[in-house]
Amino acid sequence: MADRTSATPLLALDAVAFDTETTSLDPRAARIVEIGAVRLTSGRLNEAETLRKLVNPQIPIPPVSTGVHGIDDEKVRNAPGFAEVWPAVSDFIGGSVIVGHSIGYDLAILAKETERAGISFSRPRTLDVRLLAQIVEPSLGGYSLDSLAAWLGVEVADRHSALGDAVTAARIFVALVPKLREGNIRTLAEAEAACTSLTTALEEQHRAGWSEPVLAPSRADSERVLARLDSYPYRHRVKELMSSPPLFISNDTSVEEALKTMADTRVSSLFVAPPGKKPDAGPFPGVESGIVTERDILRAIRKNAAGALAQPVGNIASRPLTSVPAEAFVYRAIGRMDRLRIRHLGVVDDSGFVAGALTARDLLRLRARDAVTLGDEIDEADDVHELGQAWSTLPAVARGLLDEGIEARDVSAIVSRELGALTRRAGQIAERRMREAGKGDPPVPYALLVLGSAGRGESLLAMDQDNALIFERGDPDGPEDRWFAELGTHVADILHEVGVPYCTGGVMAKNAQWRGSAALWRERVKDWVNRSNPEDLLAVDIFFDFRAVHGKGALAGSLWREAYQFAKGQPAFAKLLAEASSNFEPPLGWFGIRTEKGRADLKHGGLFVIVSVARVLAIFHGIAEHSTKARIESVRALGLGSERDLNAMIEAQRVILGAILDQQLADIAAGRPPSNKVEIKRLSGDDQSRLKNALASIRYANETLRDLLAVRPM
After folding, report:
1. Of 155, 204, 397, 504, which sees the most CB atoms within 10 A?
2. Which alpha helices (H) appear in 159-248, and where do they start and end?
3. How far apart are CA 525 and CA 267, in angstroms?
């Protein structure tokens, strides 16, 4: 897919490496004698897709130029002119980003040639490997194509031919991507922004008559595609549409009886219990269940009209059941149905048991087919390149939803769900890597967890990794633990490459303190509750936000319930957790919102205290809810605290989330790494007023927390 957004990771970029050979080095007079290009697909060089065209320049080729590229008048005598060649070149480039070495020269040449031919030239987005190398290594002795190839250990291909130099430039780009990532330059827009900061190099090229090699990033038209999408699939969850309870029949029920049951109950499909199990013995896991539909029965009758109705339904049922989680947003179900070309899905709960059914009829009113493929693109990505491509569309989805008026709290829930899906797919790819390395399958059942904001459903776009692992059994540093340590390392590396950086606090399953057996996790929770030093509990609080995204969900569910039950009513533990936000002070001054360099950190100066208060109260009162809003609403339902104060916290979270998310999207489009710091002057007067009121309303949140911790849990 060439048409991607500014948020596309460089490792997943669809691009065309491009080069020209010309009659001279003066872009005002030079004519093209050869064009070469090679495709980069999802950030990988595809040498099977190349373009090489000789061009008759319509003027004599100077001997000095022939001495460089070997092309003389005789070689191009029967070659077509530029106007004849350009359509094929333009089609090859399509909507791709162009990558090249000193690409500003080639752009200037193209602009002149198209002008002479009376052809309209629309400048593509471009990246210059010469400039990218200067960003990575400012003190390098030289930045010629040969120098860069030698520095990076890249093979030079057919030097001074257009195609050979294009291939070499492509290889250099691929080699630069991990080095750029080390410098926190991950996306197309970030690379563009970094290049435009090299003012001295750009001025030199401008004086030479070259075109600008890279333009400052701006929001591309492709990023507005989703601005008017149907938002229903992003606001509603599968559980709201599914039919429940699920209707099961036994594996040996006849097809005729199944058809009669469908007619009597007016449904178009039935679930099939695992072999040997009676329908009323459920609930059944989705992976062990099957489904039979009206179409399955019609196909069976067509295949064997005489005996179809008498055979057991297990003969024609589809297994294993294709399903989606009940908590998933509806767009995930649409994407899965579209990709698999099916009309029926099972719906499973957090433990993987069948909870209901969803059909295409339930989704007929939902029209956002193109936009909702994000989820399934993540699920089907085969490697980090495809995963990065899928992940890059998330900012465009978020921008489209905000533009349609969907509140940021719902958008952040979608971001969280897709971060969970990304982590799950990273876990699956990590398992495959383990098998390919001869390490085999997981030694025991396990669950991969996301923690913190991802677990709460409140992720924004300035994210890093917070993940953990729980496995059924195994001692620390035992064979099971060592296997999962390696798996966790793969997961962290995959997420980091795709664009979710390593957690600076080390909250990742690759680290021993964030993985362990179910028994070890229970001991950890007990140990935390009995600690007396707040410094011993750094990062512990985000554990209580966890959610399983891959593996055996029942392991996580049991630990979740036990952790809340054990911590319930433990005032010393709750007060230690509360210490983390005790010094909170909103960024408010006499004249409005205080800023540093024009920005206010609304996470540390706003969201942090709301999330912390809600979490501590949920733990203390045994409220097993994930989201901040649900936790506060549950506290309110218990009749605790001031309803006005609690409502103010819910509203403040909404306002602050909206301000941060909008700023992050603007930063991503401009090639700036997203953060939680908001440029206050960007906000309208009304928005500034709302934000100021929101911050003022939570000024005394810690006092509210202390008061509510004095009330014993019910």
Report:
1. 397
2. 162-182, 188-196, 199-207, 232-235, 238-241
3. 46
Instruction: Mean pLDDT check: name the lowest of 3-7, 605-609, 668-672.
Output: 3-7
- Give the model's confidence band at 628: pLDDT under 50 very low, under 70 low, under 90 confident, else very high: very high
Q: Residue 518: beta bridge partners?
A: none
Could you tell me which of 25, 337, 49 has the C-alpha nearest to residue 209?
25
**In terms of pLDDT, which residue wins out, 6 or 543?**
543
624 vs 85, higher pLDDT = 85
* 3-state DSSP assignment of residue 130: helix
Any idea where the domains of the chain sit in the sequence? 10-218, 244-360, 568-714
CB count in 10 Å sphere of residue 353 = 19
Overall residue count recorded for the chain in this entry:
714
Q: Give 225's pLDDT tier (boundaries 50, 70, 90).
A: very low
Architecture of domain 244-360 in this structure: Roll (3.10)
Residue type, 125: R
Beta bridge mates, 16: 39, 98
Q: How far is the C-alpha of 444 from the C-alpha of 328, rounded, in Å?
A: 27
pLDDT tens by residue, 476-509 = 999 999 999 999 999 999 999 999 999 999 999 9
Task: Name the DSSP letter for residue 403.
Answer: H
Half-sphere exposure of 460 (CA within 13 A, CB side): 27
Query: Minimal CA–CA distance to 174: which of 152, 151, 201?
Result: 152
CB-based burial label for 554 (10 Å; 0-12, 13-18, 19+): middle
Please choose, from the candidates 39, 33, 106, 105, the residue with its C-alpha nearest in 3D space to the C-alpha of residue 71. Answer: 33
Q: Which residues contact 270 (CB under 8 A, 6 or more apart)?
A: 247, 248, 249, 258, 261, 262, 291, 292, 313
Q: Which one-letter amino acid corresponds to residue 364?
A: L
Which pLDDT belongs to residue 1? 36
Secondary structure of 607-657 in HEC code, one letter for each residue? HHHHHHHHHHHHHHCCCCCCCHHHHHHHHHHCCCCCHHHHHHHHHHHHHHH
Q: What's the whole-model pTM score?
A: 0.79
* pLDDT mean across residues, the chain: 90
Q: Which residues pair with 589 in a beta bridge?
A: 592
CATH fold for domain 10-218: Nucleotidyltransferase; domain 5 (3.30.420)
Kindly report, residue by residue over 392-415, the tens digit of the pLDDT: 888 988 887 887 678 899 999 999
**pLDDT tier at 366, thresholds 50, 70, 90:** low
Using an 8 Å Cβ cutoff, are 544 and 521 in contact? no
Dihedral sign from CA coordinates of 646, 648, 654, 657: negative
Which has more pLDDT, 381 or 532? 381
Q: Taking the mean position of all CA atoms in its chain, how far away is CA 373?
A: 13
What is the Cα–Cα distance from 32 to 23, expressed in whole angstroms?
A: 7
CATH 1.10.8 fits 568-714, yes or no: no
